[in-house]
């Protein structure tokens, strides 16, 4: 156990150094960027170690796995939970029971489902719109096509959910820079009508520097902190 704590601490320190360097290179204050540690596939004991090491935000991508982990003793003290996976509307009510932030809202149907879930649970939910950044977006990998973002944003703004901004994953096998530049542009456009929706969730273990360069406010980092997931599937 103590070996795992030291491993996580060392990995966190390395990622923290990367973020600090990226912020400095971009001329941005470190406080503008929040680290969300993605704990999918890893056990509850890692969540507790991370919370103890000062991690404030964790991300999970599967409702049942997350709910099971958080049922063991509740959400660790002082930790905000983010749902970052593809969401079926029939699972929205379950996600609303434990998530503080749902980063992957990509269609209007989820707005009603999450609203009902949050009301039933008596909780407030912050949401991000996930955008498909493929050069020829089809929404197949999850994410609204850019043209659908304004209507979806208005729908969320008219609901009890709090619209905080945008989330995206860089397209596979492509330079992340132009994709994250498109995301920054979409964010600027969104903020014309929704000035408080200023979060940009982008950047993972492999491309966090590019995301920081293009204005990311939230990074979702798994592998670089927890290690290889393939042995935990
Ligand atoms: C798994 C996952 C991450 C973390 O990816 P790593 O490459 O392990 O850092 C980030 N975002 C989403 C949406 C994910 O599903």
UniProtKB/TrEMBL annotation:
It holds the Pfam family Ala_racemase_N. Residues 11-229 form the Alanine racemase N-terminal domain. The modification N6-(pyridoxal phosphate)lysine is found at residue 40. Coiled coil: none annotated. SUPFAM superfamilies: PLP-binding barrel (SSF51419). Keywords: Pyridoxal phosphate. Belongs to the pyridoxal phosphate-binding protein YggS/PROSC family. Pyridoxal 5'-phosphate (PLP)-binding protein, which is involved in PLP homeostasis. This is Pyridoxal phosphate homeostasis protein. It comes from Janibacter terrae.
